User: Fold glucose 1-dehydrogenase [NAD(P)(+)] from Paenibacillus algicola.
Amino acid sequence: MYGDLQGKTVIVTGASSGIGKAIALRFGKEKANVVMTYNSNPDPMEEMIAEIKETGGQAVAVQANVSQEEDIRKLISTAHEHFGALHVMVNNAGIENEVPSEKLSLDDWKKVIDVNLTGAFLGSREAISYMLEHGIEGSVINMSSVHEVIPWPHFVHYAASKGGVKLMTETLALEFAPKGIRVNNIGPGAIYTPINQEKFDDPESRKSVEAMIPMGYIGKPEQIASVAAWLASSESSYVTGITLFADGGMTKYPSFQGGNG
Assistant:
């Protein structure tokens, strides 16, 4: 646990399941104030709010489409109205779908870009604007992916969105470092979440994915949440503009493991 996160206010988008849920619950354990977004189903949120309060934090849930300016502004105002400040913005919400690139429709392209890249931009912009206005040296954390550097056939829109998040994050980090605002990425590898549960529960599919991970196993959302907590804390106070890959070594060319090549 990082004592300096107690009482800080954190926004986590896409918090109803998977990595976002784990991040929100982790900040609850840090005794932070957590503003969580969900897209359409509010059912998981009451249980999460109760769990966060049980561990010493505070929480509220807000329905939001992260690709819409008015929804992002509503998030910022909710944080201010409920908790009086915003210290950490975690742009976690993201979507993906598999489509051969020659068959990818413009609508499917736009949907992924709008959520993954435009959503991260809007969240970053509004959080930074708030921090500048209130003199807060805060932290913005964007959820990227190993696919900001690893090409991914049939997911060209997803890979493009995460490549965009990489340079967006680096640019914002450079721009606002003099103001004490840090902007970083987390790049998860293969993580066991509801979006890929069916794939990873199939023994053959799981084995093929594990073969691409030097550490040999699929990660858990809580392992990504630990990275988010560190990047938000003062323990990482000299870190900005990076992508911290939490991927079991997936980005390290695993086919060369054991001296192959």
User: Anything to note?
Assistant: The longest helix spans residues 106-134. The two ends are 42 Å apart (CA to CA).
